Amino acid sequence: QQQVKQSPQSLIVQKGGISIINCAYENTAFDYFPWYQQFPGKGPALLIAIRPDVSEKKEGRFTISFNKSAKQFSLHIMDSQPGDSATYFCAASMDTGRRALTFGSGTRLQVQP
Amino acid sequence: GAVVSQHPSRVICKSGTSVKIECRSLDFQATTMFWYRQFPKKSLMLMATSNEGSKATYEQGVEKDKFLINHASLTLSTLTVTSAHPEDSSFYICSAPRQGGYYGYTFGSGTRLTVV
C-alpha cells in the first residue's frame, strides 16, 4: 500500500477554536481524498471528501484544503466543539474510489470546554 | 441507502477456536468488499479484498489460511478467523465501494474480537 502521512498525532483545542490536521501523500494516482471521524468502538464515518480537480471544499464547519502540486491536503474544523473530540483519519484511494483506501495514522483530537 | 450491516459487533472466543464475521450489503450489491483490521489506537490496515465469485486478494503479511474470506454472493462477504489466538484480538471492519457512480465507501460498524 502507498503511504499517507498524517500529523499531528494528537491535538488539543479550546472550544470555539480551529482544529487543523494535515496529510501528505506520494502516489499521484490517488484521485479521492476523504476524511473520516471515528469514535471509540465504532466504524469510521465520512466527514468530507475531495477530488484533485478542486483546491478547497467546505461542508458546514469542515473544510478540506487540497494542494495538488505539494501533494498535501488538510482538514480544518472551525468553531471546534467538545462533541468533535474523536480520532480523525485522512485517506486516499485511486480508480475513482474502486480501490481500497489507504489511511493515515490518525489524529486524536480533544476539544476542551 | 448503501448500508453494510456487520455482525457480530463484539465477540469473545477461546484460543484455538474459529470466529466468523459477516458483512451484508442491505440495499445494494457489493461486488467488492474490503476487510480492514485496527489495533487499539492505531489506524485501519487493509487485510484483504474480496470479489464476488473469486478468490480474495490478501495484503502482504496477512495469512490467508488464518483469515478465510468468502464472498459467495453479491450481498454477503464473510471473514473467518481460524484457530484464533490472543494476538488476533482486534477491531475488524468491512467496507464496500459505493454504487451508482458515486465516489466513496460504505463501512460496516466493526467487530471487536477478543481472544482469551
Describe the structure in your own words.
By secondary structure, chain A is mainly beta. Chain A contains no helices and 11 strands. In chain A, strands 2, 4, 5, 9, 10 and 11 form a 6-stranded mixed sheet that branches. In chain A, a hairpin with a 2-residue loop joins strand 6 and strand 7. The model of chain A has no long low-confidence stretch (mean pLDDT 94). With 116 residues, chain B is mainly beta. Chain B contains no helices and 11 strands. Chain B has strands spanning 4-7, 10-13, 19-25, 32-38, 44-51, 57-58, 67-73, 76-81, 90-97, 105-107, 111-115. In chain B, the strands form 2 sheets. In chain B, strands 2, 4, 5, 6, 9, 10 and 11 form a 7-stranded mixed sheet that branches. A 4-stranded antiparallel sheet of chain B has the order 1-3-8-7, with no helix packed on it. In chain B, strand 5 and strand 6 form a beta hairpin. The interface between A and B is medium-sized, with 23 and 24 residues.
SSE diagram, text form:
The complex is a heterodimer of chains A (113) and B (116).
Chain A lengths: L3 E4 L2 E5 L4 E7 L7 E6 L6 E6 L5 E4 L2 E6 L4 E6 L8 E7 L9 E2 L3 E6 L1
Parallel strand pairs in A: 2-11
Antiparallel strand pairs in A: 1-3, 3-8, 4-5, 4-9, 6-7, 7-8, 9-10, 9-11
Chain B lengths: L3 E4 L2 E4 L5 E7 L6 E7 L5 E8 L5 E2 L8 E7 L2 E6 L8 E8 L7 E3 L3 E5 L1
Parallel strand pairs in B: 2-11
Antiparallel strand pairs in B: 1-3, 3-8, 4-5, 4-9, 5-6, 7-8, 9-10, 9-11
